[in-house]
From TrEMBL, chain A:
The lineage of its organism: Eukaryota, Metazoa, Chordata, Craniata, Vertebrata. This is Necdin-like 2. Residues 52-251 form the MAGE domain. SMART domains: MAGE. Pfam families: MAGE (PF01454). GO terms for cellular component: nucleus. Residues 1-35 are annotated as: Disordered. Gene3D superfamilies: MAGE homology domain, winged helix WH1 motif, MAGE homology domain, winged helix WH2 motif. The gene is LOC109085923. InterPro entries: MAGE, MAGE_WH1, MAGE_WH2, MHD_dom.
From TrEMBL, chain B:
InterPro entries: Nse4/EID, Nse4_C, Nse4_Nse3-bd. Residues 52-101 form a coiled coil. Residues 104-155 form the Nse4/EID protein Nse3/MAGE-binding domain. Residues 253-354 form the Non-structural maintenance of chromosome element 4 C-terminal domain. It comes from Cyprinus carpio (Common carp). The gene is LOC109111065. The lineage of its organism: Eukaryota, Metazoa, Chordata, Craniata, Vertebrata. This is Non-structural maintenance of chromosomes element 4.
Length: 261, 358
């Protein structure tokens, strides 16, 4: 299958070129949906089961390594770098990949963006209070993220960026200064967390000067338990989590729906 | 919400050059001219440049007011936003032409955005959530040491936040996440075989012959006692050393390896590790991992400890594996109530000992 490459004029700005590149990859991704059943049949005949096994293992390894930085994985990348000529049977491969993650690693491969086919890995096992989540020392960024996600959630799901910065300042984390643990805080929050899809950082329309608002990202929706978060908030305030009725309702609803999936 | 002024009024006297009606004029977006040149079907009253300028200026004032005082407008305690809208309504009654109408539209867009935001701030039921209080509680959780401030100021930057503050929060926050552990390589060897069964705990004599046995019981008893006593004495001596260090600086943790390793003797090092493990087992000192992942010894502030097992496995002649279960300080018990158990496996052999004393 020949790849269609679009010539990109050098004069185009970087941002424009990027969207051009993603268009290319979207084309490749589109190839996934144009597979006919005869193509599938032929592919199964062409490749031995050993070869397919190997392919499955390669995809698993690819995803594991991509997951290290916690940046969500695009189906197009999996296709381009790993599956390649096995594209016709990608569904079968991906099914087996999911099963491997589930049965061997206790992980779930979750599609957080069904439109753009973007995946993340999350833990199938829920952490149990009283047992350590991991033997390694905690990553301080987890604490930082928790603070931001909590404020957003408790305040109804969207907040202006100033609320985040002001809260962090009270915790001695100033986005204007270099922080001992986090370094360039603004970058961590508005760039790293956003690329990992823990947060969304969106322009508020009609603001002059421009202001942004924060929401939960697609990864956070799948990876973070609102109920557990609310419980911890309750512990900090020494308050019954149910006293925040709206938040409790939302957290419980999300919990039951995610258990079903 | 808005009462549109009487836009449908018939025009004033036209001068006959193509009677442009009101709606046509309203669509004329290109009307930049103050003096209203061109076919002037517009009445003088509607076209008064001074008046129009005044209207536009008032609109701009309102727009500025909304933009500069955004926070104030959002405050649920006042009706400033509604007041602005009422002002705009009054102004609009006098708007006749597109240029002013455009300003009105601009103001409305701003106001509705604010209105939407204001509405979203209302939570019909349930407790409020105050981010400032949240921050205060977090600081307490992270171990903020609030100093006595004699000036009586309520500075929120008072107090000493320990280095482990964010670590502490991270460890607790982790429970809210279902994060997949990151893939990384296990560096080092991996013994596939299970360890051979425990060969010996202490140096024991071989079973004595029958002859010697008669005398043995008393002698052996003495040996055992003196062995145990020797061990106890050593342990106490080490405890004394540590207590001296802690007295000098109770907060400073001591590097475990620095403490146990004897640069001159491997066997002494092993004995030190052995004796240290008693102190840990008995809850007299605590051991944990510092931020580099290296074990260190610290002072126990309260007596609360939880477990009891020390076991030594000699796997090979030159390799000693130690397994100790370290107690947790009372203050560090997780909020859920259960104690956290930490296991620390330390190994040392001649080779690594030689490397470590370099």
């Amino acid at each position: 299958m020949s790849q269609r490459k679009r010539a990109v004029p050098a004069s185009q700005s970087k941002t424009k070129r990027r969207s051009q590149v993603s268009l290319d990859e979207d084309d490749e991704d589109a190839n996934f949906s144009q597979i006919t059943s005869s193509q599938v049949q032929r592919a199964r005949e062409n490749f031995t089961s050993d070869q397919i096994d190997r392919k499955v293992a390669e995809v698993v390894q690819f995803i594991l390594i991509k997951d290290q930085k916690k940046i969500p994985i695009r189906r197009a990348d999996i296709g381009k770098h790993v599956i390649k000529e096995y594209k016709a049977i990608y569904i079968e491969i991906m099914n087996r990949v999911c099963r491997k993650f589930d049965q061997v690693f206790g992980l779930k491969l979750v599609e957080i963006d069904p439109k753009n086919h973007i995946y993340i890995l999350i833990n199938k096992l829920e952490p149990i209070h009283g047992e350590p989540v991991s033997m390694r020392p905690g990553n301080p960024k987890t604490g930082l993220l928790f603070v931001i996600l909590s404020v957003i959630f408790m305040k109804g799901g969207v907040i202006k960026e100033n609320l985040v910065w002001n809260t962090l300042k009270k915790l001695r984390v100033d986005p204007g200064e270099k922080h001992e643990e986090f370094g360039d805080v603004k970058k961590v929050v508005t760039d790293e967390f956003v690329r990992q899809k823990y947060l969304e950082y969106v322009k508020i329309p009609h603001t002059e000067p421009v202001e942004y608002e924060f929401r939960w990202g697609l990864r956070a929706e799948k990876e973070v338990s609102k109920l557990k978060l609310l419980k911890f908030v309750g512990e900090l305030f020494d308050q019954d989590p149910q006293s925040w009725t709206q938040q409790f309702r939302e957290a419980s609803a999300t919990e039951t729906s995610s258990q079903r999936s | 919400i808005r009462s549109k002024g009487s836009q449908e009024e018939t025009a004033g006297t036209s001068n006959g050059l193509g009677g442009r009606n009101r709606s046509e004029r309203a669509c004329d977006m290109g009307d930049e001219d103050d003096t209203g040149a061109g076919p002037s079907a517009i009445s003088d009253e509607d076209d008064d440049p001074t008046r129009r300028r005044e209207i536009r200026s008032k609109y701009r004032d309102l727009i500025n007011q909304v933009q500069q005082n955004r926070e104030d407008m959002l405050n649920p305690a006042n009706n400033k936003l509604t007041d602005v809208l009422e002002e705009a309504n009054k102004l609009f009654a006098n708007v006749r032409q597109a240029r002013e109408a455009a300003l009105d539209a601009q103001l409305l867009v701003l106001a509705t955005d604010l209105g939407k935001e204001k509405a979203s701030q209302l939570h019909a039921e349930g407790s409020a959530f105050d981010p400032s209080a949240f921050a205060e509680h977090l600081l307490s959780f992270m171990g903020l040491n609030r100093l006595e401030d004699e000036s009586g100021q309520d500075g929120n930057l008072e107090g000493y936040l320990p280095q482990s503050a964010w670590q502490r929060l991270a460890k607790r926050s982790e429970y809210c996440f279902k994060t997949a552990p990151s893939f990384h390589y296990i560096l080092g060897s991996f013994l596939a075989e299970p360890p051979p069964p425990r060969q010996r705990v202490e140096r024991q004599r071989k079973a004595p012959s029958k002859e010697a046995k008669r005398m043995m019981p008393t002698q052996l008893k003495k040996m055992e006692e003196s062995n145990q006593e020797a061990t106890e004495r050593e342990v106490e001596r080490i405890l004394g050393c540590l207590q001296k260090y802690f007295a000098d600086d109770p907060e400073e943790p001591i590097s475990y390896y620095e403490f146990v390793i004897d640069p001159n003797s491997f066997s002494r090092t092993v004995e030190n590790i052995f004796h240290m493990s008693f102190l840990i087992r008995d809850g007299l000192v605590k051991m944990n991992l510092d931020k580099y992942g290296l074990p260190c010894i610290g002072k126990i502030k309260s007596t609360g400890h939880h477990f009891s097992c020390v076991c030594l496995n000699v796997l090979r002649d030159d390799m000693y594996y130690w397994c100790t279960i370290a107690p947790v300080e009372e203050g560090e018990v997780e909020l859920g109530g259960a104690a956290v158990r930490n296991q620390c496996v330390i190994s040392i052999n001649q080779k690594s000992w030689r490397v470590s004393i370099l």
